[in-house]
Amino acid sequence: MAAASPPPSPPHPKRPKMSSSSDPEPEPTSLAAAGADPGQPRRRYKRRKVAIILAYCGAGYQGMQKNPGARTIEGDLEEALYQAGAVPEADRAAPARYEWARAARTDKGVSAAAQVVSGRFYVDPPGFIDRLNAKLAPQIRAFGYVRVTNSFNAKKFCDRRRYVYLLPVLALDPSAHPDREAVKASAGSENQLAKCVECSERGRKVPDIMGREGKLPDSEEEKVLDTPGEETVASHGELGDAKSVPASPVTETCDGETRLGGDVMIDIPSSGNGTEAQNAELGSNGAGKFDIEPALGTCDSEAVPTSASETICSDSTLGSVDVVASVVAEKENNFEPADSEKERMQAINIQKENGEESPLLKNTFAYTDEVKEKFNRILKHYVGTRNFHNFTTRTKAEDPAAKRYIISFTANSVVSLDGIDFVRCEVVGQSFMLHQIRKMVGLAVAVMRNCAPESIYDVAFRKDIRLNVPTAPEVGLHLDECMFTSYNSKWMDTHEAVSIEPYAEEAEEFKIKYIFPHIAAMEHKEGAVALWLHSLNSRNYPDFRYMETAGSEAKVGAEVENMEEVQMPSNNISE
């Protein structure tokens, strides 16, 4: 009888696909070496379909979407997921393999307080969020994650998005930061405006303000600008023929308001638009001059404010201008460049000695009920299904993607950040295109400042009309919430809701620590919105006068098209 064969040895345990740490443990040579019960196989981790809720400050990043050669939020996040052990080596830099999706695609410099991304990740063992945050920069924070269905996609299942744009209150004042033509139009009237003394840009194009790169002066231009007693001054937002006017000393600051200083809570790198560097060079050449500069045209016949009490970068009476101008003229020949803050205080002291209040300290414009009612009426033009081909780039009017559904657009509250008052403009829509929100805000501000008539909205959404619409600076915009109403309602019995509500307190703390200080700092340091306001004129945007040239035909055509268009939600989803 043959001897019985020995029992087969147990199979060797397989190594898990991915450990929860960045350095996987070496494979044990035996079950005993692994410290496990020989009767039980070693535990293997599985990928889970999850939605991650996070926030970030967009300063220093070229937007959310991954772009080769650029620093993006998505690029840093993908690498952090790999370093945290959520993505295997084989899938590194290949997001399609783990079903990566984002709920919103933010522009360069735009922040988010409640972004959502989804995919299949290794989230075990516990502590996944802590491991992920340890690999991320401080200005990118993950709050938590929820398990979702296998078919979940953050982009497709997000049925609405809410953005908030914080706009300085003074941006709505027609007399704050006026352009050269508005100053000329008001000459000789009792509501005469003075040239803006807060901005040192002196008429050159600012990169990213007009959508085209500015041109820094060469050495010959600098010599001309530094000529004592005379300065070449061009209109803000224009690179055209400049006009030489008498020079006079002035204070130099780019604050969003007429206030002295203001502590900055946090110093975050700028978005790289070159404005700060340009301002630094301009400051070395001297500041802008305090005078009423003549011009060649007007922004609009309605550009003159209706009340002298509504001026910030202006004077309610000609007396205030004459007081400063006369004193400045006496010192013109002996003018030496001085510290801007020192000059500011000297100008203030001069007027105090004459018993007059400095216009630099005036701040009579406020977001009153009347102003709020008008601004909300203007924003309401965007509500509904519209063809927004004039409010984006690279999208033709015939493209179905140009139609977007805006649920609401309101501006009902004011927040104060580091001494500057901001209007909270809140827009909720199904989806948005590139630059759409910034262009909607830009045109609304132009209408509020009387640079364009409100009737321009009669043609702004027409397919057969192409308008050049101003784009507001990106710094004030942030994604406030991504909503998954339909998904949460359908799967409420089996899955957790995808919502920012459980992390609302953490999100608010992040905004206070990173997003809000960055917005205020950009206004104090660079005056992003203030410089942009100087570009709002009919020379840079000839389409502001479209209704004057087109006449009643354009209005009739707009009424016919609005009657044919059905007001229903669009299925196009972009961001």
TrEMBL record:
Residues annotated for substrate binding in this entry: 163
Region Disordered, residue ranges: 1-44, 208-261
Molecular functions per Gene Ontology: pseudouridine synthase activity; RNA binding
Native source species: Triticum urartu (Red wild einkorn)
Biased composition range(s): Pro residues: 1-11
Catalytic reactions of this protein: a uridine in mRNA = a pseudouridine in mRNA; a uridine in tRNA = a pseudouridine in tRNA
Active site: 107
Pseudouridine synthase I TruA alpha/beta domain span: 379-484
Coiled-coil residue windows: none
Domain of life: Eukaryota
Main location per the UniProt record: nucleus
Gene (name only): LOC125514050
GO CC list: nucleus
Protein name as annotated: tRNA pseudouridine synthase A, mitochondrial
Family note: Belongs to the tRNA pseudouridine synthase TruA family.
PANTHER family hit by this protein: PSEUDOURIDYLATE SYNTHASE, PSEUDOURIDYLATE SYNTHASE 1 HOMOLOG
Biased composition (Basic and acidic residues): 208-225
Pfam families on file: PseudoU_synth_1 (PF01416)
Subcellular location(s) per record: Nucleus
Record key words, sorted: Isomerase, mRNA processing, Nucleus, tRNA processing
GO BP, sorted A to Z: mRNA processing; mRNA pseudouridine synthesis; tRNA pseudouridine synthesis
